[in-house]
Amino acid sequence: MGLTEYLFHKQYTIWVPAVVTVFTFVLSFFLFQYTVERFIYRKIKVIYKNIHQLKLKKGQKPKSVDLNTDIIAAVNKDVEAWAKDQKEEIEYLKNLENYRREFLGNVSHELKTPIFNIQGYIMTLLEGGLEDDKINRTYLERAEKSVERMVNIVEDLEIITQFESGQLILHKEKFDIVELARDTMSSIQYSAEKNNVRLVFKDHYEKPIYVKADREAIQKVISNLLVNSIKYCKPSGIGETKISFYDMDENILVEVSDNGIGIAQEHIPRLFERFYRVDRSRSRDIGGTGLGLSIVKHIIEAHNQTINVRSTVGLGTTFGFTLQKVK
Ligand code: ADP
After folding, report:
1. Which phi and psi (to 5°) does residue 80 adopt?
2. Ligand 1 pocket: which of 220, 272, 293 to mutate (most atoms <8 Å of CB)?
3. Strand, helix or coil at 2?
4. Fewer beta carbons below 10 Å: N end or C end of the chain?
């Protein structure tokens, strides 16, 4: 074998096995990758189909899933959206559960006091009080007051439940809000006078101001706000509650403004929550259920309108709500 022939043979024996090895390696790599990908794809298809089934609402027919598209990307997108939905739903259910627990706790707490009071009065009467003319009437009157409080709580709860379950249907009609305010003021005139509070209009509203709303519900709103202005007036001096109306293009703004004890800023954000009271004992002593403002807010929001409050401790409080204006 000559030198040239020897060198050629040596090169050949090195390169051929090297090329074959590399080729085999690359081929098996792609084959392996293809097999694994097929395997994963098949598994993911099953998951994707399952997600599709789970996402369907009751009674909805399953849609056919196009498996020729980029399934990995679609799965990714769907899983993300699905996880977000589930998280939001869990959050919502948790809030609902907390709300339910808190609500039940509040209701039983509110009813417990009058029930125990009634029990106490009846026991005293049965244990001889009935024959004692000095106390029998007083105790019966006190028991009656507690029953009245329970009735108020239950009635207010009923209204709130009707609003929240969507059972309460508004009967909107055109009416004069000035006239309604005047009627409401005169219906509680007696209680206002007893507490040294004057109920007045801020201006002379000689012409009618027409709004479209549920007359009875709005009467309840005005009445609740007026009664509150009487309940939370200053202990001494003359109280004054003014009602005013402002034209705001599409709406009429109604304001009920008092010069009572006022509300500290920290209470304002929670004021419309059910059973929220600034001064628990004062509210209970004067027969408050802690539900009045919550009902007011429900009524105004059911009209798709807004209510707000501004207040300064020692100076007074103004509640303002809007109503749809009509010609
Ligand atoms: P309540 O039956 O206790 O009056 P509301 O829901 O009507 O319940 O009011 C919630 C709380 O808001 C009251 O307990 C009171 O502390 C406060 N509040 C409401 N209106 C006034 C007002 N005009 N002036 C001062 N405080 C008020």
Report:
1. -60, -45
2. 293
3. coil
4. C
**How far apart are the C-alpha atoms of 40 and 209, rounded to whole Å?**
71
> Do 145 and 193 fall within a single domain?
no
Q: Is the pLDDT of residue 147 over 90?
A: yes
Among 36, 69, 102, the domain-final residue is: 69
Q: How much distance in Å is there from the Cα of 63 to the middle of ligand 1?
A: 54
Close Cβ partners of 314 (under 8 Å, ≥ 6 residues apart): 261, 262
Q: By percentage, how much of the chain surpasses pLDDT 90? A: 64
The closest residue, in CA terms, to atom 21 on ligand 1 is 228
pLDDT of residue 7: 66
Q: Are 257 and 244 in contact (CB under 8 A)?
A: yes
- Based on the domain organization, do 160 and 95 belong to the same domain? yes
pLDDT bucket at 68, cuts 50 / 70 / 90: low
* Range from 7-11, 46-50, 128-132 that averages highest in pLDDT: 128-132
pTM: predicted TM-score of the whole model, two decimal places: 0.74
Confidence of residue 74 (pLDDT cuts 50, 70, 90): confident
- What's the number of domains the chain is made of? 3
Q: Do 226 and 314 have their domain in common?
A: yes
Q: Are residues 124 and 25 in the same domain?
A: no
Q: Which domain holds residue 20?
A: 3-69
Q: Same domain for 64 and 99?
A: no
User: Structure tokens of 151?
Assistant: 């009735």
Residues whose beta carbon lies within 6 Å of some atom of ligand 1: 228-229, 231-232, 258, 260-261, 263, 271, 276-279, 283, 288-294, 317
- Same domain as 91, residue 63: no
CATH number, domain of 307, equals 3.30.565.10
Q: Give the separation between CA 148 and CA 142, rounded to whole angstroms.
A: 10
